[in-house]
Amino acid sequence: MKKRYASTWESLKEHQVPKWYEDGKFGIFIHWGLYSVPAFAPQTWELGEVPPDETWFSNNPYAEWYYNSINVGYGPSYDYHVQKYGKDFKYEQFADMWKAEKWNPAEWARLFKKAGAEYVVLTTKHHDGFCLFPSEYTDYNAWRRGPQRDIVGDLTDAVREEKLRMGLYYSGIVDWTFADDPILNNEDLFHTASPTFAYADYAYNQSMELIDRYAPSVFWNDIGWPRQGEQNLPYLLSHYYNTVEDGVVNDRFNDLFHDFTTKEYQSGSANRREKWEMCRGMGLSFGYNAMESDDKIISIEDAISLLVSTVANNGNLLLNIGPRADGTIPEEQEKRLLAIGEWLRVNGEAIYGSRCSSRESIKYTDQIQVHFTEREGALYVLIDAKGRSQVAVTVPGLRGNAIPLDPEVDAEITAVDGGLCFTVKNFGSSQNIAVFRLN
Ligand SMILES: CC(=O)NC[C@H]1N[C@@H](C)[C@@H](O)[C@@H](O)[C@@H]1O
């Protein structure tokens, strides 16, 4: 019997994180929109590395913040804009330059499947207010302008064709078509966010549109929810769960409710007792930044290491891609997705469907860490030795027979006082992260 949720916080609190989200572990985030046309941001810091003050906001590494980065009227993005497009070129003009002429959603979905992702989260409306779906509430959308397609619908169909889950990102509290005072610190951000009850209704109505039209498995709201609309949230969320029984929501509804908490680069915290999700771009940006070449984005080893350490500590990794405006995925990003997929094809037994082990991760040095996961009664030992071709680590409190999941891994395991010593002579194709099943 399908559970029905009442529009009360008490009823919503009965919602459990569904098994698919606990098991899925790895998702693909996609930031695609008008900002993909200029595709520019300075390469400065990771979120959380520096305070969210004027220095951050006038040198914002997030290419999807291009509107605000030029709106502040100075800084690298402003200079780039004036030089490339001219001082009087309005951001809205990108709406007729974005054509997505090479976009093949089925190709994207096949790549995500090969990457070993279990779910996808696409921006439906980012802070710039441009909608990637035919919203009834604004013509500033990809059905009327630019691509003249239902980007959200077309990708949702393709992703589901590959038996992956489709999630939708919505910028709930920030929409620069309603309030676009320049943002140079978090006070500006929250003072200009959601200025009116009318906007709160707009956000509510668009969220209902997205739920009713696409039934997303993830409703990924960003930054916050309009304060004037907080009393609507219990109805919106109960409607969501009553529409998508095994749907999940994140924790960016003004800390009022969540299924899982979020970390973004270095911003936010995580704990092993509660389900959380780590999101980041491959470089410092979520939107495509043409300045971020192959040597400037996360390495394959570091991406897999992040996936392993996140999963071993009860999280999911939502790794972002920033497609080009024409609908192609930059080769350097595709290369990483395929390598992660290859690693998961060999070692995924320790990842998918696993749960956080009672054993905490062990950090031997900056380069050598050991993580643990458990699944169907087996304990998995994941030895992360990035940058080393060989390693020997003794893991205390282990005994029994350890088998590498990757047959190409050449390792010796010996019992030593009260533990097992793993000597890995060759990591095979496992990118310096060797996984063992302990029986
Ligand atoms: C912590 C937070 O609220 N971040 C907002 C941030 N989220 C990213 C996934 C991107 O969409 C950014 O553009 C956005 O500002």
TrEMBL record:
EC id: 3.2.1.51
Function as written in the Swiss-Prot or TrEMBL entry: Alpha-L-fucosidase is responsible for hydrolyzing the alpha-1,6-linked fucose joined to the reducing-end N-acetylglucosamine of the carbohydrate moieties of glycoproteins.
Family matches, as SMART domains: Alpha_L_fucos
Name of the protein: alpha-L-fucosidase
UniProt domain Glycoside hydrolase family 29 N-terminal: residue ranges: 2-349
Keywords: Glycosidase, Hydrolase, Signal
Entry-linked PANTHER family: ALPHA-L-FUCOSIDASE, ALPHA-L-FUCOSIDASE-RELATED
Source organism of this protein record: Diplocloster modestus
InterPro entries: FUC_metazoa-typ, GH, Glyco_hydro_29, Glyco_hydro_29_N
Family statement: Belongs to the glycosyl hydrolase 29 family.
